[in-house]
Design goal:
alpha/beta, 5-stranded mixed β-sheet, 16% strand, binds 1,5-anhydro-6-O-phosphono-D-glucitol, mitochondrion, glucokinase activity
């Protein structure tokens, strides 16, 4: 028993000495938490640099946009082919995603060798080889002559402008095929595949293996938003906010960024961390000066680092009694699988002896202990460096989400991470120590990145298919110049019909004479009562007009009109109005005072004299053109009531099924068709109808129609103005949708914004076509080459919508280029107008009495 204790003491002492010896020799490779936090901060700075448009060109960490915007949502399905090139093995796979809605993925695959003469030969031969392997795979599985969407996992840094393209920035790891750098590898592959007349594949996506890994894991865990490879090479990707990605248009939603962290330090930022061993390894590598971070971490280099260290220690007489072997001098003789074997808990030491012996060395027990510790320090540093960079990414995710605590999942893959006995534990431990405010789940990707690549392809083809369907719906609202000119022409024709006695009754645009024949000339004066009914609110106003100085002072009170009054009897409505007037006069201390009153009554009225009004567009018409009223002198204001335009079906060619739905559900089906395509009361309802239809098609809100969305009028037009505001980030769009009981994704919100834009744009364009018709008429009526005219505008939609007035102005300019139209917003609403008209009428009556 004493002998055993003596042996144990002797061994632990020996071990201690060897460990100390190695710790001294490799002092610079042991990184304290303070150093790791510093590296983490440096990496955060590099990420920011990579994301910046101006700084990206000089950034070493390229932060490449991948155009992967969505993680799988379970609705993906179909059959896909997938190629996985760049890791330690080249694989061709067929992936079947989700049969009958069941969330499962069937995969069958075949590995193909990647001989050096291929991966370091001529680029086109490399792609010919890949295409040959693909053809072989399809032949052996009877897949020829069947069209397949294909996803390419290409594990090298590629700059992408879309999913189905990737410009190779540089080869890494063992690859160095000529003539491929700075070319689009998807075109290279497409060209090679085309040589095989009997295979038909559509390369829909190119993804980096980190992206494939993240997507593979996200299919099982929706919290997964980071993908890390620690294999032959090393790299990471994560979901970044579009608003932080300068290199890609748009601020909405998120996109996956392939960091290419392997190149961290290529600009010298890690020179204080790198050791002489790292520099020697780099000089002997395929790409000196490149991928310096990767060369301190990944599987292709870890074994070589250990070899270089052992050789230096042997040369320094610290190992093997100073003896060296030719194998120890030979690059690549020690591989990462050897390092992993030497670090195994139980059989590690025995493995170490066996491996060193295979290298032609005669290691002592002490040597084996020392070599094992060398492996530990090298692989520990690798895990630490990965942890520091990963912690930087996790911190960025937490800050992007403005969270105190982040819960997330990191998808992992790569041989080093999978085969090294201690690696995962060490990495997880250090990550959690560096970012204590993150709950991180590490999820190993069981089926490699290709399942993920198939997911991206499935998402791409789903998004592509959905996009096509959504574009089909949005296209219904995109009016061509020809269509707008046609509306303008038809509106003009309806104007003429309405003005002419013979055709007036059949005209849909009633062109109602208003008996307003004069415009204010500044001599008007006095106190006037004005009522403004029919817009959003009912207002009673006292308007004081002082002559000569064109000054008008107004006092007004807004009264709500309860729905039951709005839709009750006429008598109840007018009793309510009179009550409001009485309240107002009482409030103004004018009870019993006799005052002239002007009434803005925003509904279609046939008038025989000036004291009954309504309009949505009026203009001063030449009396000679108004056959319904005696006299040819002067002008009279015509209330077009163009809201009824199209009630005869003349614009049914541009009315959509959604317009019909809105009309069917309205208080006056078949009536006011133009108004129902253009005005604030209906735009929100059109949007609601479209959203319901898109949701029924499974294109929105995962096909779930909320009770609230089924409620007529729930999607108010004010939401359009809010949602379309450029200042509103997507998150705010989502909160509006939340209020409507709609649980939306980023993509959903982008589509909702597009739908709102399409509906409001069409409305503004249709208004523009109508306005162009009337200003062109006035120009021609006045026989003018050019007409300069001001149009008074009012209304909540025009005032509040962020783009309506601009699109309206642009449309009028395009359709009536010889009219210089100024749109002037009426600051005081039409109440003031009613008082001014009353003042003008009183002035003209006075003038008539005096004549
Ligand atoms: C398996 C993935 C593949 C990736 C590889 C990385 O399917 O896309 O490139 O992991 O690990 P390696 O094979 O380089 O160790
Ligand atoms: C490549 C990355 C790849 C990583 C892991 C690196 O050398 O640059 O694109 O993701 O290896 O395979």
């Amino acid at each position: 028993m004493f002998a055993i204790h003596l042996m144990a003491f002797y061994f632990s002492k020996l071990k201690e000495d060897q460990i100390k010896k190695v710790d001294r020799f490799l002092y610079h490779m042991r990184l304290s938490d303070e150093t790791l936090l510093d590296i983490m901060a440096r990496f955060q700075a590099e990420m920011q640099k990579g994301l910046g448009k101006d700084t990206n060109p000089t950034a070493s960490v390229k932060m490449l946009p991948t155009f992967v915007r969505a993680i799988p949502d379970g609705s993906e399905n179909g059959e896909f082919l997938s190629l996985d090139l760049g890791g330690s093995k080249f694989r061709v796979l067929k992936v079947q995603v989700s049969e009958e809605g069941k969330r499962n993925v069937q995969m069958e695959s075949q590995f193909y060798p990647t001989p050096n003469e291929i991966i370091r030969g001529n680029g086109s031969e490399l792609f010919d080889y890949i295409a040959d392997c693909l053809a072989d795979f399809m032949k052996t599985r009877g897949l020829k002559h069947k069209k397949f969407p294909l996803g390419l996992t290409f594990s090298f840094p590629c700059r992408q402008t879309k999913l189905e393209e990737g410009i190779l920035l540089s080869w890494t790891k063992k690859f160095k095929a000529r003539g491929v750098q700075d070319t689009d590898v998807v075109s290279c592959l497409t060209k090679a595949v085309k040589k095989h007349k009997d295979i038909d594949v559509d390369i829909l996506t190119l993804v980096n293996d980190t992206v494939g890994t993240m997507m593979t894991c996200a299919y099982d865990d929706p919290y997964c938003e980071v993908g890390v490879i620690i294999g032959t090479g090393t790299n990471a990707c994560y979901m970044e906010d579009m608003s932080n990605i300068d290199l890609v248009e748009g601020d909405e939603g998120r996109m996956c960024i392939n960091t290419e962290w392997g190149a961290f330090g290529d600009d010298g930022t890690l020179e204080d961390i790198r050791t002489e061993f790292d520099r020697e390894l780099d000089l002997g590598s395929l790409n000196p000066g490149k991928q310096l971070f990767e060369k301190m971490i990944s599987g292709l280099y870890l074994g070589e680092l250990v070899r270089i260290i052992l050789l230096k220690m042997a040369k320094a007489g610290l190992l093997f009694g100073g003896k060296k072997s030719s194998a120890l001098h030979t690059k690549g003789k020690i591989e990462t699988r050897h390092v992993a074997a030497m670090e195994k808990y139980k059989e590690g030491l025995a493995n170490t002896r066996e491996i060193l012996t295979d290298l032609g060395l005669e290691p002592s027990e002490a040597d084996c202990i020392a070599v094992q510790h060398v492996c530990t320090i090298v692989s520990f540093r690798s895990a630490n460096l990965c942890a520091a960079a990963l912690a930087a990414i996790l911190t960025r995710l937490r800050e992007n989400k403005k969270l105190e605590r982040l819960r997330t999942t990191v998808g992992m893959d790569g041989t080093l991470y999978k085969i090294h006995p201690q690696y995962p534990k060490r990495l997880h431990k250090v990550v959690r120590r560096l970012v204590p405010n993150c709950d991180v789940r590490f999820l190993l990707s069981e089926s490699g990145s290709t399942k993920g690549a198939a997911m991206v392809t499935a998402v791409a083809s789903r998004v592509q298919a959905q996009r096509k369907q959504i574009d089909k719906v949005l296209a219904l609202f995109q009016l061509t110049r020809e269509q707008l000119m046609d509306v303008q022409g038809k509106m003009r024709r309806e104007f003429e019909y309405g003005l002419k006695r013979d055709t007036h009754l059949m005209a849909t645009v009633k062109m109602l004479p208003t008996y307003v024949c004069g415009m204010p000339d500044g001599t008007e004066k006095g106190k006037f009562l004005a009522l403004d009914l029919g817009g959003t609110n009912f207002r009673v106003l006292l308007v004081k007009i002082r002559s000569g100085r064109r000054s008008v002072r107004m006092y007004n009170k807004i009264f709500a009109i309860p729905l039951e009054i709005m839709q009750g009897t006429g008598e109840e409505l007018f009793d309510h109005i009179v009550q409001c007037i009485a309240d107002f006069l009482d409030y103004m201390g004018l009870k019993g005072v006799q005052l002239p009153l002007g009434f803005t009554f925003s509904f279609p009225c046939r008038q025989t004299s000036i004291d009954k009004t309504g309009s949505n567009m009026c203009y001063m018409e030449e009396m000679r053109n108004i056959e319904l009223v005696e006299g040819d002198e002067g002008k009279m204001c015509i209330n077009t009531e163009w809201g009824g335009f199209g009630d005869n079906g003349c614009i049914d060619d541009i009315r959509t099924q959604y317009d019909e739905k809105v009309d069917e559900g309205s208080l006056n089906p078949g009536k006011q068709r133009y108004e129902k395509m253009t005005s604030g009361m209906y735009l929100g309802e059109i949007v609601r109808q479209i959203l319901i239809d898109l949701t029924k098609q499974g294109l929105l809100f995962r096909g779930q129609i909320s009770e609230r969305l089924r409620t007529r009028g729930i999607f108010e037009t004010k939401f359009l103005s809010q949602i379309e505001s450029d200042r509103l980030a997507l998150l705010q769009v989502r909160s509006i949708l939340q209020q409507l009981g709609l649980d939306s994704t980023c993509e959903d919100s982008i589509v909702v914004k597009e739908v709102c834009g399409a509906v409001s744009r069409r409305a503004a364009q249709l208004y523009g076509a109508g306005l162009a018709a009337v200003v062109e008429k006035k120009r021609e009526d006045q026989g003018l080459e050019y007409l300069k005219i001001t149009v008074g505008v009012d209304g909540t939609l025009y005032k509040l919508h962020p783009h309506f007035s601009r699109i309206l102005q642009e449309t009028v300019k395009e359709l009536a280029p010889r009219c210089d139209v100024t749109l002037m917003l009426s600051e005081d609403g039409s109440g003031k107008g009613a008082a001014l008209i009353t003042a003008v009428a009183k002035r003209l009556q006075q003038a008539q009495k005096e004549n």
